[in-house]
């Protein structure tokens, strides 16, 4: 299950991603927004991050104009590893090396086709484990020490 969230700047791209998910049989939960009226990205980043923490979803995709603000907010939540992704290769490495569970996309910088290619690569790439798993354990230890 993938949690989706977007502010007004990512709304159109989110709707296209939903269309792709519907056609591909990919399950998702849409946490909004529902239109292009101005809204604030932290609202949707929090909803998606909490859905993952609460195990309602396995991963998430957040969309705003740049993707950066969404990544900042999502990374404030324990257990969330969010990264702003711009191309297929960064999507693969984000998943294989860092087991990124939330990708953020910029609606101003990606075409629908580019976004779908990024998502396909992120979903289809397995996490390598091994030394990368050891590093994620280090990240978890840092979270435990510093996220109160």
Describe this structure in words.
The chain is an alpha/beta fold. It has one domain (2-146): Ribose 5-phosphate Isomerase B, Chain: A. It has six helices and five strands. It has helices at residues 11-24, 41-53, 68-74, 88-98, 112-124, 131-146, and strands spanning 2-6, 28-30, 59-64, 82-84, 102-106. It has a five-stranded parallel beta sheet, with helices on both faces. Helix 2 (41-53) packs across helix 3 (68-74) and helix 4 (88-98) runs parallel beside helix 5. The radius of gyration is 14 Å and the shape is globular. The two termini are 28 Å apart.
Shape type:
globular
How much of the sequence is in beta strands? 5-15%
Give the low-pLDDT segments.
none
Average pLDDT, rounded to a whole number, is 97
- Estimate nothing, just give the exact number of structural domains: 1
Largest sheet: 5 strands, parallel
Name the CATH superfamily assignment.
Sugar-phosphate isomerase, RpiB/LacA/LacB
How many DSSP-defined strands? 5
Given helix and strand content, the structural type is alpha/beta
| Proper CATH architecture | 3-Layer(aba) Sandwich
Report the total helices. 6
Radius of gyration computed on alpha carbons: 14 Å
Question: Can you list the strand order of the major beta sheet?
Answer: 2-1-3-5-4
* The CATH class: Alpha Beta
CATH topology: Ribose 5-phosphate Isomerase B, Chain: A
SSE succession = EHEHEHEHEHH
